[in-house]
Amino acid sequence: MARNAFAEYLVRRRAELRPGDIGLPAGGRRRTPGLRREEVAVRAGVSADYLARLEQGRDTNPSIAVVEALATALLLDERERSTFGWLALTSTHEARCPETTDESEHVPETIETVLRALAPTSAFVLGRRLNVLGWNAAWEDFVTPLGLLDNRDEVNLARYVYQHPMARKVLRNWTEAADTFAETLRRASLRWPGDAGLRETIDALHKTPEFAARWRPQGAGRPVTPTLRFDHPGLGAVDVPFESLESDREQSVVVWLVARAPESAQALRLVPPRAAGQ
């Protein structure tokens, strides 16, 4: 039986730990790096045979108590525990996970109204695959010179960062942006493992070596950078802190608080100055 994502996490994490991490003597030869299966099993209060079945994908339904015990035995921090628990819940139940429907990719009129109301602040609607589903005029004006709207039928932030020839030229923190979008897709793949379109997007991006090198779906995850830093063709050095507002449609309204370099200008406000003074 093929391993599932939860099983792969177990194996990888056990290999990462060293005897000294759990208070065991560091000496002695080991055939493979990391802790022995028996050592983890004892710490978790399960049998080595049961742990072997989990690691090999032969047992796919660990209890919450077992997942928590293994997380403690493997010295997982809070963020890693969250990933570990989600993998245990979803790895073998993809058929029960919802697929994306056309409705979830459609921007309702209420959200369109919000986008227009946010002007002059740049804002757009983001789907679970990092597809940009709609935007206001301020965002369009800002990103058009960057090449982000070259293909308006398929606007995707991850594809732009990894595959558009302008991305490396205009993004001063390209590495951080690349990490952020890989991490965002990783989290989406855990949340919606049954989304075939999401898998297609990730598979397509894997053809780019930079994305493949960053893709670690069983890892604990990287922190998401809150700012994009552009060398804008028309505006020069522009820092863009961003905030996401989640909706109940599995979409996000993303606000780009466009700012020149900190020493030369201030961020645009969400409320126009005249209205704010009333």
Shape summary: elongated
The tally of structural domains comes to 2
Query: Which architecture of the largest domain per CATH?
Result: 2-Layer Sandwich
What is the arithmetic mean of pLDDT?
A: 82
Total of DSSP H or I helical runs spanning 4+ residues: 13
Round the Cα radius of gyration to an integer and report it.
23 Å
Report how far the terminal alpha carbons are from each other.
67 Å
- Given helix and strand content, the structural type is alpha+beta
What letter string, H or E per element, gives the SSE order? HHHHHHEEHHHHHHEEEEH
The CATH class designation of the largest domain is Alpha Beta
Report strand %.
5-15%
Largest sheet report: 6 strands, antiparallel
InterPro entries: Cro/C1-type_HTH, Lambda_DNA-bd_dom_sf, MLTR_LBD
Pfam families: HTH_31, MLTR_LBD
Protein name: Transcriptional regulator
Domain HTH cro/C1-type: 34-81
